[in-house]
Amino acid sequence: MNIRTTPNPLIRWIGLRLTRFNDRHPWSHNNHFHPWILRSLPPSTGRALDVGCGRGDLVAALAGFAGRVDGIDPDQEMAYLAATRFAHDPAVQIGRRTLSEHVAEPRRHGTYDALTMVASLHHMDLAEALLDARTLLRPGGRLLVVTLTDPVSTADQIWDVLSVLSNPLIGLVKHPRPVREAPEERPIPVKDPAWPIDTLRQEAARILPGAVIRRREGFRVTLRWRKPGSAPAEVSAGGAVR
Questions:
Q1: For strand 66-72 and strand 92-95, is the pairing parallel, antiparallel, or unpaired?
Q2: Residue 192: what pLDDT?
Q3: In 3D, which of 143, 146, 145 has the Cα closest to residue 42?
Q4: pTM for the whole structure
Q5: Who's near 161: CB < 8 A, 6+ residues apart?
Q6: Contact, 201 vs 57, CB < 8 A?
Q7: For residues 172 and 176, what is the distance between their CA atoms, to the nearest angstrom?
Q8: How far apart are the first and last CA of the chain?
Q9: Where is pLDDT greater, at 129 or 22?
């Protein structure tokens, strides 16, 4: 239910107050999951790929753990901002391309120890993206996803309500000092999710057997999967396949 259009004046008032509070105590629902991603990386991460890298916040975090990090984004301005940010870091490479374009190069197949997607999976065809991720990972590699799903079931909607109520509390903890004006940044491209969590579970069970999927705070859902097999010997940053 959209609190802006509901005829109930009390709900509209509550929604307006929550929005104002959230604006004064902002927090990034995507960056919030970076620590979870870093904790979930393989013990030795030689090469990582961030799909839909945006401005490169997660790429920067991964660079401290992986020998080599590739970031891709189909949006021209996002890819440019990220490429400019890491222009002087030889261990990071940014490209403007989609995941399907990236996997079209066979030399990249099976080259990544970790592949991450934060708020990007719902921009792509679900089955195709999961298949592409599986192809790009090495045996023993990890797929780590933070995504949005369409709240269609009663359980989904209840979880969304809990996220609405917990959002200001998390914001207060993460950003206790209220802000006067939000910094002006080029907005990241957004898209509403087209499939619910049950569809994600069904496709993951078919393509990524053993994947762990959970509802999380901030209206997010996480997926964690390890590709079967043993990881080969770690490749140094200088010898990583480009």
A1: parallel
A2: 83
A3: 143
A4: 0.80
A5: none
A6: no
A7: 5
A8: 47
A9: 129
